[in-house]
């Protein structure tokens, strides 16, 4: 059965290479749709209370971007790898196009720093909450449009027909790289066949994300565009276990930033971003700060006079953040990242130490939380999908059970990964890291219980 599936996947990969021109035209169609839905709503009047998805372009764009695109692109990465990046992403396509017509400079050393995607995700997530990016078209244009312009500028400055932005700077590339580790398909490279294969060879492919194809083992950075499929008869799209990459290659020595992004960003900061509008802890924090400000005569922080591009400011809809709101959001999200991410880090480190293992094993163990982190992102983002559909009158009574099932499956997968990763440990020592993972998953699950049922 796997052989038949591999043949079909291999044929699909070969078709991607064969129909590269068709894929480029598809990318430009996506770019056009992206531009229409991003730019036009920002110049339209704000939707009135009785407006609906099908009769208001602003609401339709909001649903497409935040109700469909963002959650289901993440789901597609888990299912198919970074196929979105290679085939459909408008930002990547525009960056590559700009690179083909730009200066063609070399990638500077500072840009190769591995922490940029992590820092970009943290700052973009925080900024998006401050300006209510999920709710207003102007905020979406500022963040998504600004990111697209930056991608094009980087493409024009560096590389020749490459996606330098996607490889080193894109704020979501780190998240996609983590989630792609779970994909049940990838382009496998047989390095021995690559070296042994005699000429003639197919023309060298243009690997836009600047990968060393011959030595590629991970699906994390691969955009799954198919341009290298069949190269030297050594590159094939095949099926694999979704657990394979984390179990076999999760102990790579250069995964420090991946672990930081996972624990403090994908799990810690993201949960705070999804929770703060419902959290009684956030309200208590704001009240405490407000009382202190009044007592000390610092009333300017209670004013709602910030521009919309700094803090949400739409007084015509009775939606305007005070400076205190902005401070509270920063503190709450920062606290969520540090407390939840740091707590998980300490738990996993303790489990590794009890098992007599090193810091590298802690990082390997942390990657076992990728399924739980991915499920959390999907649950949090799809909450916008559910909210918008319920505004349209759909009850969606099954959503609660689906959320429980998804969380349970993700946690079970996480524990299975931990069991496999610690397989070399003898006897009771294996229980320590698996127990740490169990406690970590329970902590994350408690956070989602508060989000959807407790508050």
Automatic annotation (TrEMBL):
Residues 64-103, 150-187 form the 4Fe-4S ferredoxin-type domain. Pfam families: Fer4_5. It comes from Aquipseudomonas alcaligenes. One of its GO terms (cellular component) is plasma membrane. Keywords: Cell membrane, Membrane, Transmembrane, Transmembrane helix. This is 4Fe-4S binding protein. The keyword Transit peptide does not apply. The chain crosses the membrane at residues 26-44, 64-89, 110-130, 136-158, 261-283, 326-352, 364-384, 396-419, 431-449. It is found in: Cell membrane. It comes from the Bacteria. The keyword Signal does not apply.
């Amino acid at each position: 059965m796997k052989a038949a599936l591999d043949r079909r996947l291999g044929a699909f990969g070969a078709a991607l290479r064969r129909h590269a021109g068709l894929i480029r035209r598809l990318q430009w169609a996506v770019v056009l749709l992206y531009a229409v839905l991003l730019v036009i709503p920002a110049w339209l009047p704000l939707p009135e209370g009785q407006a609906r998805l099908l009769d208001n372009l602003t609401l339709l764009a909001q649903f497409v971007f935040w109700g469909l695109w963002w959650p289901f692109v993440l789901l597609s990465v888990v299912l198919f790898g970074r196929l979105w990046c290679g085939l459909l992403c408008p930002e990547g396509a525009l960056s590559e196009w700009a690179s083909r017509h730009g200066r063609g400079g070399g990638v500077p050393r500072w840009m190769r720093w591995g922490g940029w995607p992590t820092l970009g995700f943290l700052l973009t997530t925080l900024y998006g909450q401050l300006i209510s990016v999920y709710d207003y078209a102007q905020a979406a244009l500022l963040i998504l449009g600004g990111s697209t312009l930056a991608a094009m500028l980087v493409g024009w400055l560096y590389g020749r027909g490459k996606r330098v932005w996607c490889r080193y700077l894109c704020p979501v590339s780190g998240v996609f790289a983590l989630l792609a580790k779970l994909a049940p398909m990838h382009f496998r490279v047989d390095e021995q066949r690559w070296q042994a294969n005699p000429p003639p060879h197919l023309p060298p492919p243009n690997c836009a994300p600047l990968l060393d194809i011959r030595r590629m083992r991970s699906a994390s950075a691969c955009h799954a565009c198919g341009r290298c499929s069949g190269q030297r008869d050594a590159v094939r799209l095949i099926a694999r276990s979704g657990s394979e990459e984390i179990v076999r290659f999760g102990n790579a020595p250069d995964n420090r930033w991946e672990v930081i992004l996972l624990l403090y960003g994908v799990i810690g900061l993201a949960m705070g971003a999804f929770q703060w509008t419902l959290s009684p802890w956030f309200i208590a924090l704001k009240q405490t700060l407000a009382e202190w400000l009044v007592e000390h005569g610092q009333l300017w922080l209670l004013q709602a006079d910030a521009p919309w591009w700094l803090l949400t400011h739409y007084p015509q809809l009775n939606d305007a953040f005070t400076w205190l709101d902005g401070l509270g959001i920063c503190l709450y999200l920062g606290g969520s990242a540090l407390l939840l991410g740091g707590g998980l880090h300490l738990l996993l480190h303790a489990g590794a130490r009890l098992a007599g293992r090193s810091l590298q094993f802690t990082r390997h163990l942390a990657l076992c939380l990728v399924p739980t982190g991915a499920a959390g992102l999907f649950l949090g983002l799809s909450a916008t999908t559910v909210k918008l559909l319920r505004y349209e009158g759909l009850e969606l009574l099954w959503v609660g059970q689906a959320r429980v099932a998804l969380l349970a499956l993700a946690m079970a997968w996480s524990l299975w990964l931990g069991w496999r990763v610690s397989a070399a440990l003898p006897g009771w020592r294996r229980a320590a890291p698996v127990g740490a993972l169990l406690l970590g998953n329970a902590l994350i699950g408690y956070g989602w219980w508060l989000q959807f049922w407790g508050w």
